[in-house]
Amino acid sequence: MKQYYAIKAVHPDAVLLFRVGDFYETFGEDAIKASGILGITLTRRANGSASFVELAGFPYHAIDTYLPKLVRAGERVAICEQLEDPKTVKGLVKRGVIELVTPGVVMGDNILSNKENTYLASVFFGPKITGVAFLDISTGEFYVAEGPDSYVDKLISNLAPKEVIFQRGCEDRFADAFGSRLYTYRLDEWVFSEEVNREKLCKQFGTKSLKGFGIDGFTGGISAAGAILHYLEFTEHRDIAHIKSISRIDQDDYVWIDKFTIRNLELFSSNGSRGKGSFADAVDRTLTPMGGRLLKRWIAMPIKSPVRINERLDIVEFFVGESDFSERVRTQVALIGDLERIASRVAAAKVTPRELVQLKNSLSAIETLKQELEECGNGRMTILARELDALAEVRDRIAREIYPDPQNNQIQKGGVIADGVDPELDDLRRIALHGKDYLLRIQQRESEATGIPSLKLSYNNVFGYYIEVRNTHKDKVPDTWIRKQTLANAERYITEELKEYEEKILGAEEKMLVLEQRIYNELMGFIRTTLKTLQESAATVARIDCLQSFARIACERHYVRPVLDEGKRIEIKQGRHPVIETTMPVGEAYIPNDIMLDDRQQQIVMITGPNMSGKSALLRQTALIILMAQIGSFVPAKSAHIGVVDKIFTRVGASDNISQGESTFMVEMLESASILNNISDRSIVLLDEIGRGTSTYDGISIAWAMVEYLHNHPTAHAKTLFATHYHELNEMEQMCPRVKNYHVAVKEMGNHIVFLRKLERGGTEHSFGIHVARMAGMPVSVVSRADEILRNLELVYGSNEIVPSRSLKERERSGRKPSAQSVREAAESSSQNMQLSMFQLEDPVLVQIRDQIKGLDLDALTPLEALNKLNEIKKIAGI
User: Fold this and answer.
1) pLDDT digits (tens, 9 = 90+) for 490-506
2) pTM across the whole model
3) What SS3 class is residue 454?
4) Under CATH, which architecture does the 423-524 domain have?
5) Level-2 CATH architecture, domain 2-101
């Protein structure tokens, strides 16, 4: 326990798995925590002078089962191993932490998700600028960027790191900039020294400067990136030869997609659950884990260069047009394993024999793929072929030295190195194999010589090979046999001959394991020299995989190639939602719609229409079609012309941030503020039901003001789709020349409506909310009562109309009904904020009359009293 506490003191915030014999044990608070997470038994054990200590453990071979559970529960796990062989040491065995596993520093396949990166992020808060770096240690991908906190926040949202490290003392700034939902770890300020980290990075990449990576001037980024390398040393991950380079993320190269847009468009999650139902899941037809991860990065970071986009589209178009070639490419790509993670495991000396066999098979598939690309006659494919290297020497050496189907997946157990690789190993195998055959011959010979038919030759760890004789035959045992053990029904013996062969066989097996380990390590060392080439080929395979995936869904779903240019017009003909159309009931087709936006005639499209008519879907599909075009995919439309956008903003749907005390309306205002403060001339803005989280008048005022701001912005005419229930906003078409009214059509059939889901020119004044309530299964009495109340309101105040509060008394005195015109006139006459409030629906006069009648006892009322009471009511009413 003294040894345990000394190691625990170095890693106080980690669950320490302490190796004791064949078990990993946890003690004290760790044991209480582990037993709850893992569902293992919590016990107490005496601890010297202390009364007891809590204890919970599991067998060492079950670590692959229990470790992922601890990490997924957000725990840091320090794995403490026995560093000496207990057989050769007297007293206490030396122990030490060999690996610290955290949510962001993971190598094991049992924890990692195949098609998802596991990034560790590092943030450095400088005096003027913030630096950020991202590393996936399982693949070697390393990125760096710097900019204002808002830009770093966007990158963190896009790449979704599992863990973020930052300098101690910046907790408040970190929470203000990025919230409190990230898993974080703080490091001392000196870890982020720019000078030290610059040297650390150069040493890692084997260069004299960082100019070749384009990050020499990224002082904040270098501070963040170097801190990641320090953190890897701290967590005992020192074998990182696969981290060969670093790439800068340039703000000008990628489309701005903030965390609100990622959530609102459900890019990576649907209804809060990652994966199924998300956009990424719907468009993923990749065949390799590498391709799946790259596709997610492309979705998170669409590009803005029409040249680069069209390069991707050219390849997708060739795949679409050459179906036989595409199928041959897919066949080979499907045979390629996760080369990026195999490379990282080779660097860390953790690669298994079966992974090496998979590497060999993958390299064979790459060679065939390279030939297919070279022979197809397409220039772009020829360029891709040049970027592939099948590493023939690596492939041949693995084929020569490793069994095609190794007996064990752990080199420590042997049975991995093929015959003919090492003469000494072959000799030892013959001894071991024939020695065991000889033992069987001894058993048969002794059985015949002694006349003991049930004689059995076995082995145990206590006294090696032995002969077991049942008690009924023990009188036949020769005097030369040495008795070693007596059982209830039998006795066990050894002979000199058995001991001699035992030494030969066991000695041979031990030597075989040592030899196999040496040959295996030499092979890994050779492969390690080719890691950079292997990673480059893996990146090319991932790219091919993504592009064939785009081609596959284009053929399956009848997508078309979009036209992209530097213009500012977006025109989509018969666009469809790429996710919803895949979930439509059998026999029901998705209704396509046209959208046209530009900065001169139709900058803002105001869309009205009832609930469930498809307004939100129309907004989302427009954004997703633009995003698909700018990642290089064909799109779900009859035609699409996209003037590349630099920012996609969405405010769709309602959500609370209860943990930070923010209401639905507050979240809506935060997202809206982020949009208005960051728009540019090439932005696309999608706003749905702005203002519905507050009173009707406040909501209309905010929505009206936002549309005016977007329309009248001096430099940025952001293209906008604005879906709303506030029909009064249709009046803005008369005031703002680039605002155009549209509505989603419905057809009334008696008391029912049919959603046509077609976008048509012109506004509408009907919401059909009660119809939707009826369709949702609201009790009939509630629907009927709502209908009655609606008719009364329309009779008194006019359908769907409001007025400014300052003219309410005038309206009540004159008896005039309010109209949408009054809102437009108020907006035109004053640029100051106008306070609107909901008018009182109960008339004070009626309330007094009700109170007069309510107190009457009709059974005791005389005719004269009734007449007097009626006269009082007449005076109250002013008649």
Assistant:
1) 999 888 888 877 777 77
2) 0.81
3) coil
4) Orthogonal Bundle (1.10)
5) 3-Layer(aba) Sandwich (3.40)
